[in-house]
UniProtKB/TrEMBL annotation:
Designated name of the protein: non-specific serine/threonine protein kinase
Subcellular location field: Membrane; Secreted, Cell wall
Gene3D superfamilies: Phosphorylase Kinase, domain 1 (3.30.200.20), Ribonuclease Inhibitor (3.80.10.10), Transferase(Phosphotransferase) domain 1 (1.10.510.10)
The species this protein was found in: Medicago truncatula (Barrel medic)
Bilayer disposition of the protein: Peripheral membrane protein; Single-pass type I membrane protein
Length: 775
């Protein structure tokens, strides 16, 4: 009966196409019918319709080019040995995955000479890989993962030179990784994980120049972790966890600029943690736990601020202290090491930590869950339930030797008397102030925590929350001198006569307890910053739902108001504008490069540059963006003012110094142009804009300069501004470079201002002349 049917079938096709195609289609039809994979007894079964079946894909001539059977397929389990592979001369892709395939891979599979894609993963295949697989020379994708294939990895696999993807993982392969695999020059993805592979990692793998994923985890590899791995600069994922590797971490890991995942867990890798690992920008997972790392942690590593990053260095032999500067990232696991010293407050920047089982001592920051610090016997706490449940010591008085105790007993009263005396002298200088605050009075930072009131004050005298409320009549509108995105600014005269600006933040909804130790620490750091071009932050107060910052008062208000006021803009002549831009550059350079931890302003704009009565410019509001966002749910929200935000922030969350550099470029240009330079920025790439002359865009409200030095300075500011506005953050100069350029003595240029075009400002010659180098 079948023969009769097939004859009809053949006739139908035969009338449509040439003889060779007919026989090819005929062969395929026969093979499909004989395979037993498809149920020929079903009512709707019609072999002529095979190209429309879910599992079969044909080319235009009706010949089968792909067979795809996977979890979603309605077929019963196919039997690999019943397919006539010789019949499929046009088959390019064969996928039989998650289909409960049993038995071995038949050697006849080698007949599929056009095959480029073979996926037999997630089945129960046994036996060895047939040697005939080497015939599949067109193969670029080979996946036989999650089976029970035994034997060694055939060294002849190197003949499949077009392979880009090779997954042999989760099988029972034994023996070594053949060094011949180094010939698979196109390989991008190599996964041999979860087998019984022994021996060392062949050095020939260094020839896999295109490799991005290397997974050799869960095997029995031994020998050294090859240093040459770091030559494979396209690597994104490296997983060699759960092996028996020895040796040290290559010191130049930092070369792998694309690395996102480095898993070396559970090996015996020694040596110290390489500083170069600190330079990998995209790193998300770093797991070197359960190894033999020794030495100290590099102090600058944890300053990274990729909110996705997770670092696991637990179960090693790392000693020394936890670095005091720790950035914002997801997870830091350091348990079971030999760490000593105290827990830095900055550890609160990390979402999840575990530093248990070390030799840490001293107080536990409030943000730290005690379950994450257990097994450090010298830690202390003054919170009763923590002490009782976790058997921590009491923090005060410091439990040192008796000698120290004595000193404390003698020194403390003396110190208090001294401080009191000093404060009395200061107080006498000013008028009477109310004595409601019973806390210590010093000339350095004072922190008051009085019930639900929390204040930091870093100025002569003491902070009296009530005085401020009184001075502004509870923030009456009459005292309001400005409103911005973050809050309203009030002018207040304190009882001692001093005039300050109060910035009351609005939109503040977080609960008081979220202002933990690290936040207070941060406020303290900001109040301790001193620079002649930075508006002094005297203090900070937080009371129930009122939060305000206390600043030095700047008489002329913001650069924005000056530039947009036609009268003041004229008074604000070229010399003043140039020294304003220079001042901003010095301030930002100081924040980025001279503070113990770099401070990124995040919101440089003309509204945040303030001018005093002498037209001296100062940067204000640095770091305040974070005050608003200081609750764990949205710490990484992009701060900034539209029109000043670096373009890369549209697609990355990494707020860094280079974002400030861009905003500075906008402010500098705006100061020259007299209005926001959005038109110039939008069309800067176009030749017609580039041919515009500089003097045409300069603020027309003030006369063009004729002094050579002023002309040179204007050109310099313009060159610097355009360099800072480079769309590529890496090509922008650092603020240090900018401020050094401004600080360098230069001779006047012998150029006519009227001849300089925007294009020339973008040129390397002028950049070099002004010592602007890219970083
Ligand atoms: C497989 O197909 C080829 C070509 O159609 C044919 O020559 C051969 O006899 C077939 N083998 C079997 C076992 O059916
Ligand atoms: C094939 O289809 C027929 C008719 O639907 C059914 O009775 C038979 O059980 C099916 N055979 C298999 C192996 O599924
Ligand atoms: C099979 O399908 C073809 C065309 O798709 C049709 O001509 C033929 O009659 C069908 N055969 C049966 C037995 O239904
Ligand atoms: C597959 O078919 C072959 C030959 O017909 C047979 O020997 C084997 O037992 C079958 N395998 C399975 C798992 O049914
Ligand atoms: C690799 O593929 C290219 C085109 O994709 C082909 O021309 C070449 O012959 C293939 N190489 C081998 C060794 O088959
Ligand atoms: C590597 O990748 C590049 C870009 O994808 C490609 O042009 C090249 O042919 C690949 N192979 C080798 C050996 O570089
Ligand atoms: C490597 O393979 C293991 C086991 O097969 C798997 O658990 C792990 O996720 C893989 N690593 C990467 C980076 O994909
Ligand atoms: C790795 O790269 C360095 C520098 O590019 C080169 O000197 C060295 O020979 C390379 N190592 C290997 C094994 O190719
Ligand atoms: C580390 O690997 C060894 C061998 O693979 C295993 O016995 C041990 O349990 C692993 N350790 C951990 C912590 O997983
Ligand atoms: C780790 O600390 C323990 C206990 O203090 C000490 O015995 C061991 O030598 C230390 N190991 C290293 C590598 O510092
Ligand atoms: C921290 O690590 C220790 C030891 O590895 C473990 O016992 C403890 O459960 C961990 N704590 C948390 C909160 O995961």
């Amino acid at each position: 009966m079948w023969i009769a049917f097939l004859t009809i079938c053949g006739l139908i096709i035969g009338t449509q196409s040439s003889a060779t195609v007919t026989s090819q289609l005929q062969m395929e039809a026969n093979a499909i019918l004989n395979s037993g994979w498809w149920n020929t007894s079903e009512a709707c079964f019609n072999i002529s319709d095979r190209c429309t079946w879910d599992d079969i894909f044909c080319n235009d001539a009706g010949s089968i080019k792909a067979i795809k059977i996977d979890w979603g397929s309605k077929l019963a389990t196919p039997n690999l040995s019943t397919l006539n592979y010789s019949a499929f001369n046009n088959l390019e892709s064969l996928v039989i995955s998650g289909s409960d395939l049993d038995g071995t891979i038949p050697k006849e599979i080698g007949h599929l000479s056009k095959l480029t894609h073979l996926d037999l993963s997630h089945n129960y295949l046994k036996g060895q890989l047939p040697p005939s697989i080497d015939n599949l020379r067109q193969l670029n994708y080979l996946d036989i993962s999650f089976n029970f294939i035994q034997g060694s990895i055939p060294p002849e696999l190197w003949l499949l030179k077009n392979l880009t993807f090779l997954d042999l993982s989760n099988n029972r392969f034994k023996g070594e990784i053949p060094s011949s695999l180094g010939n698979l020059k196109q390989l991008e993805d190599l996964d041999i994980s979860s087998n019984y592979i022994q021996g060392s990692i062949p050095l020939e793998l260094v020839f896999l120049k295109n490799i991005t994923t290397l997974n050799l985890s869960h095997n029995r590899l031994n020998g050294n972790l090859p240093i040459s791995l770091t030559n494979l600069t396209k690597l994104v994922y490296i997983d060699i966890a759960y092996n028996f590797l020895t040796g040290i971490l290559p010191p130049n890991f930092g070369q792998l600029k694309k690395l996102q995942v480095l898993m070396l867990k559970n090996n015996s890798i020694g040596g110290t943690f390489p500083i170069s690992l600190t330079n990998i920008p995209l790193l998300e997972t770093l797991d070197i736990s359960h190894n033999s790392l020794i030495g100290y942690l590099p102090s600058d590593f944890f300053t990274l601020t990729n909110y996705k990053t997770s670092i696991d260095l637990s179960y090693n032999l790392i000693s020394g202290e936890i670095p005091s500067m720790i950035g914002n990232f997801r997870q830091l696991l350091l348990s079971h090491n030999n760490l000593t010293g105290t827990i830095p407050h900055s550890i609160c920047n990390v979402n999840f930590i575990n530093i248990s089982q070390n030799y840490l001592r001293g107080p536990i920051p409030n943000c730290v869950d005690p379950y994450r610090v257990i097994g450090n016997k010298d830690l202390c706490s003054n919170i009763p339930y923590k002490k009782i449940y976790f058997e921590f010591q009491t923090c005060l008085p410091p439990k040192k030797s008796n000698k120290v105790k004595h000193y404390v007993f003698i020194a403390l009263p003396i110190l208090i008397i001294l401080i009191l005396a000093l404060s009395l002298i200061i107080c006498f200088k000013f008028r009477h102030t109310s004595v409601k605050n019973k806390h210590a009075i010093t000339t350095t930072t004072t922190t008051t925590t009085n019930g639900d009131l929390f204040c930091v004050w870093n100025y002569d005298g003491k902070i009296a929350f009530d005085d401020i409320i009184k001075a502004t009549e509870d923030f009456d509108m009459r005292y309001c001198i400005g409103t911005g995105a973050y809050g309203s600014v009030y002018k207040a005269q304190l009882p001692c006569g001093k005039v300050v600006a109060l910035k009351k933040l609005h939109g503040y909804e977080a609960d008081v307890p979220s202002f933990d130790e690290s936040f207070r620490n941060e406020v303290r750091i900001l109040t301790e910053i001193k620079h002649r071009h930075i508006v002094k932050l005297h203090g900070f107060c937080l009371h129930k739902r009122i939060m305000f910052l206390i600043y030095q008062y700047m008489e002329r208000g913001s650069l924005f108001t000056v530039l947009y006021d036609d009268v003041e803009a004229v008074e604000f002549n070229w010399r003043k504008r140039i020294s304003t831009v220079k001042g901003i550059a010095f301030a930002l350079s100081y924040l980025h490069h001279d503070c113990t931890a770099p401070i990124v302003h995040r919101d440089v704009s003309t509204s945040n540059i303030l001018l005093n009565s002498e037209w001296k410019a100062s940067v204000s509001d640095f770091g305040t963006a974070r005050f608003l966002q200081y609750d764990s749910s949205n710490r990484t929200i992009v701060a900034g003012t539209i029109g000043y935000i670096a373009p890369e922030l549209a697609y990355t969350m990494a707020v860094n110094e280079k974002c400030d550099v861009y905003s500075f470029g906008v402010v500098a240009l705006e100061t020259l142009v007299g209005k926001h330079p959005e038109d110039i920025l939008a069309s800067l790439q176009s030749p017609s804009t580039q041919s515009i002359k500089l003097c045409q865009v300069l603020d027309q409200r003030i006369p063009l300069p004729n002094n050579e030095i002023v002309i040179r300075d204007i050109i310099q500011v313009a060159v610097v501004a355009f360099a800072c506005l480079n769309l590529n953050p890496r090509s922008r100069p650092t603020m240090k470079c900018v401020s050094e350029s401004f600080a360098t003595e230069l001779t006047p240029l012998k150029t006519l201002l009227s001849e300089i075009s925007l294009q020339q400002l973008l040129s390397q010659e002028l950049k070099a002349l002004f010592h602007i180098v890219n970083h």
